[in-house]
Amino acid sequence: MENKTNDKNNIEDFLGSVFFEDDTKDVFEESRRRLREISVDRFNVCEFKKRMKTSIVHQDDYINEIANALYILTQVQDGQIDPSLKPVILAVGPSGCGKTYSWQVAAKKMGVKVEILDCSQVTPKGYKGKELSDLLRVSMEALNNKGVIIIDEVDKLLEFGDGQIPTSLYELLRVIEDTETYNDVLFAFTGSFMIVEKYLKKKYSNPYNFTEKKFNMYDHLEIDDFIHCGVPVEFMGRITNIVRLNALTMDDYMDMLNKDNSALHLYKQHFLEHGIKLDFDEEVKREIVKKSLNSCIGGRIIKNELTRLMMPVIEKVSSCKELSSVHIFMKEHRVEYKFEYFKSKQDEIEF
């Protein structure tokens, strides 16, 4: 109860410092009254972060950014914070590390609508294909102007090298700044920005920069680094928060595979509900993880590999009602399956 009171007082102090620095005490008191009518449990940041970490591995900074941004969005929607204070996040990281997936998880856990606008589909005006304005309009209609829009792979849309901004992106930037029309919409950008990563490696290649034993160049990532690489100033000027996602390790992928809400767990749960025990050897799991580690699509490969490995199992289950268990294991560098039945029959197949 004390924490809730402190949270409410902190919010009120924040509102006072932002909006009511002058002698508008009456307006501030009215805002206090409205604030008390809103439950502080509407969006619990700490609880939300805990729930996110049950699905997302090794991306705590990103989870923090998402949680704080969604909290501010709820406050904007409740009329407690000015829409101009909504953050605009730029998430940078390799493919498959969870830049868009994290938002999809957040959408499920919080019940907020999230639309992903894929910039790799965008073509310039005058060319056959999809224009940014068309994709943006579809996303807005899907959200009914209330939720989150993720502009994915935005680095594919930006013209590196000359600092100029594509004409099609101007409309998007105007939308972001139109806090009156899009009051209840939060915008976030994602991209790999490999050119910035190469620049950072060169920038911090001097051995004198590595005085610390665990120097991480991404801890020093700044807006100016993007501008130096040719990312337009007009675009970077709209970004309030930059977060660099971690490249996932083998242990991270194994953790992802073993989580209670992973695709592997869902398969096991599904078959168990039909009286069938599904068992994966650790060696098979390691093979799946190795493919994720070596793949350019990262964590996405886990679901793809599981789907491929489960095809023989699904075929067997659909044709045999007496199946009691399935054991998937490695033998001479090949995946094999051992099927057991209620009538003590068993067989093995290679895949």
From TrEMBL:
GO BP: proteolysis involved in protein catabolic process
Domain spans labelled AAA+ ATPase: 85-201
One GO MF term: ATP binding
Domain of life of the organism encoding this protein: Bacteria
InterPro entries with a match to the protein in the record: AAA+_ATPase (IPR003593), ATP-dep_Clp_protease_ClpX (IPR050052), ATPase_AAA_core (IPR003959), P-loop_NTPase (IPR027417)
Name of the protein: AAA family ATPase
Origin species: Holdemanella biformis
